C-alpha cells in the first residue's frame, strides 16, 4: 500500500486522499489516515509530541515519519520522541506544517513508505 497524498492544507483543515473527512490534526500512514486526538495521550503544545503520539504510525511499517509542528511551530517535539523513532530505524523529519506536508507528499510520490502526524493550526 502506498502513502496517501495530503490533498489540501489550510488553517485548521487538512484533507487526505482516500478520506472524505476534513481533519484538524491528523495521522497518516501507508493505506490510511485518521484524526489525531491529543486527548488520547494528554498531548499539549509543550512538552509536545510524545512517543505515544507516533507509536501507531511507526507500527505501520514506515521508513520515514514527518512531524508537522503547526503553522507557527507552536507544537514542540522533545528529543525523546525523535530518539524513540530513530531507535526503530525510522528517519524523522520535524518541520513547520506547510513544509512538512510538502516533504511528506514529495516522499510519498517517490514511493517511500512515509507516515506523519500533522498539527494544522498554531
TrEMBL record:
Pfam family, one: DUF498
GO biological process, one term: positive regulation of fat cell differentiation
Keyword Mitochondrion attached: no
Principal subcellular localization: cytoplasm
Protein location: Cytoplasm
Domain of life according to the entry: Eukaryota
Cellular component per GO, a single term: cytoplasm
Record keywords: Cytoplasm
Biological role: May play a role in preadipocyte differentiation and adipogenesis.
Family statement drawn from the similarity comment of this UniProt entry: Belongs to the AAMDC family.
UniProt xrefs under PANTHER family: MTH938 DOMAIN-CONTAINING PROTEIN
Protein name stated in the entry: Mth938 domain-containing protein
Species the sequence originates in: Dipodomys ordii
High-level lineage: Eukaryota, Metazoa, Chordata, Craniata, Vertebrata
Gene: Aamdc
